[in-house]
């Protein structure tokens, strides 16, 4: 990967568009990003990272605040980067999400993030020729071409401030998190988690099986009615089963003995019950025959009464029918008299005519009433039409009144609408003029403020110039003081070197092991600490001078901007012009504020005119329709009235005449029916009386009263018949019992003892039932114990391989997760990361030995952590001067920078080889050079010279003054009041 060109607009501290030409900067292979602290050097690296991945490295990426605070509202924040990856040149353009003022109204709105990718030198296979415009597609394509993620890129290409010094001194957990992000060891963590999850699953399954075994043991103990032992479970189960089998044998013997005793007792009881039952039957037959002899007179009387009742039953029906016919005849005569009275009440004269004549008269009147049915409906319609005529008169009058009212309301509305429209046009014109005058008003107000601040700006320039002169003098004094101290130190360098000599150790100058006359410090000699303090004082003085110069430049820029905006106008002229403009704006605002009211009134007036016009049209139509309908109904009512008067006759109306005719018809029909019913009843009564006389003769009764006395209800007849049949059956049954052969020789006076035999049988039966229950309980218990023993044995055998498998899985899971038999407390993931860290240590050692002139080397250690914590990621330093291995935390500031830089470069080599990414032709190193002395700085610069071999470009980010003298090509970043600026120095 090689960077060509970077452009930033309104990004970080850069307000205007700033351009960095990396091709020009990197022509020598090494360039410097130089500037004051906070001027925006690291922001350029953030811009490169943002263009590639849409994020910035380190803690700055968590803030998500990339837009310049001094940017104009309409100026977009944008980063443009041209680079070549895998021989494909492309242009990346990104804009972050940020808040900007709304173009209309108050408040802010969100400007959405954007990204695009354009191919500048051919299109790679599988990509669209027009480029990409979606954020996710751009990020995915860039990451695919680079072959590394953003975290890896930040560690490999952008070596950020303090990141590797922190990594060098980090604890195992923190170092592990960084290495995981770089080398993607998530799959090994997933393997660890998979083993843990599998162990939990297998433990849960094993616990379920163990619980199953415990349940079978508890059920076996419950059936056995014993407590289960803690040990020798199999022997206990076998003993319980043997005891159960012995109990079954004993119960079976007792059951057989009890059954034999029961059979003998029941046989004796049956014999005695049979003998007793025969005696009882004989006694019952004799007793029943004696009772029947006593009831013979009563049974004779029942027989006579039953025969008379049966003869009367043949006459009862005919007598009842004759009585019913007589009752119906009397009812028919009463009804006939009532119907005659009703017909006479209607005024009809022929009330004594026969049924045929009455029916003929009713038919004639029914036809006459039917002819009047249609006229009744017309009479009802006549009444409705007359009511409608009255309503139509009222409606027509009301509609004509509405027409007059609406006509008066419509007068003058069109003129009012025209006046409102003219006023609205004038208000709109005033609003248009305001849009042109308001910016002018704001411009005059700003110019007035600039005029008021002009004297202060001139004073600020004078004060800044005085501070620059003072700071320059202090810087020169500090520089002369430092040079003087260095000269004095060089003169006393022999004594300084002699102070570090040790008897027997080689002299660093001549190599001799003897030191007979070591040099002694002279009076006024200078040591390293004094020189360092002087250098620090000079640096502070230089920074103060630079800050004073920047402040003076800012003051001059501010004054020039004020004068440019004022264009020679003074405060009095600006005040007069602003007052006149404000009066004009106030008048126009007052007129423009009436727009909403005038528009509403105009719309309301137009709507009112339309509404009144519609109502007037509807009122006129309603009046015309009502009048037309009234005239039509009048003609129809007059013609119908003539027909109805003719049809009603002497009655009030047609309906009354029709009702009268229908009443006469109903009375005629009722009298005809009643007269026919009375004649029929007389005929039926005579017929039934003749039938009754014949029935009395056949039943041998003289009078009907004699028949009624002999008659009995059916229930009484049934009871008498039943009593006689029952007595006959009882007599026959008793005599049949006495004739049975088995009762021969049995006397009614015989006595049989059944009670003692029943008592003995009951006792034998209870003993047998108890024996059977005991046998059944013993057999059931033995069967349950056999079944439970088999299931318990099967469950015990099934759990053994699971326990062995779980023990193996548990031990393996503990080892993979850095526990158990894992003496180094290294998990699988830590083991993989330790291998990567060892590779990094080897790659970084080559750099560190060169930088430290062979003194320091990295040593990877896989020892366990303190107090049993996990290990494998320890990184120490071997000091060849003392031959000891010591923690990296003991290195000095400059040594820590060398170690951090070497570690960063080693990590870059390992990550690039691991990811298989594109060749990294551009590398940035951010800060840390200020901690190095001149000699070490030379060594580091030699290492950096080696990095740019093969066309690689290395960019250094630092404010160290000495680097400005060593590197001819540099990019200087300067602070400004409204944003940083860039300046390329060759």
TrEMBL record:
Pfam families xrefs: AAA_23 (PF13476), SbcC_Walker_B (PF13558)
Domain annotation Rad50/SbcC-type AAA: ranges: 6-187
Molecular function terms, GO-annotated: ATP hydrolysis activity
GO biological process: double-strand break repair
Sequence similarity: Belongs to the SMC family. SbcC subfamily.
Assembly and oligomerization: Heterodimer of SbcC and SbcD.
Record protein name field: Nuclease SbcCD subunit C
Species whose genome carries this gene: Amycolatopsis acidiphila
Lineage, highest ranks first: Bacteria, Bacillati, Actinomycetota, Actinomycetes, Pseudonocardiales
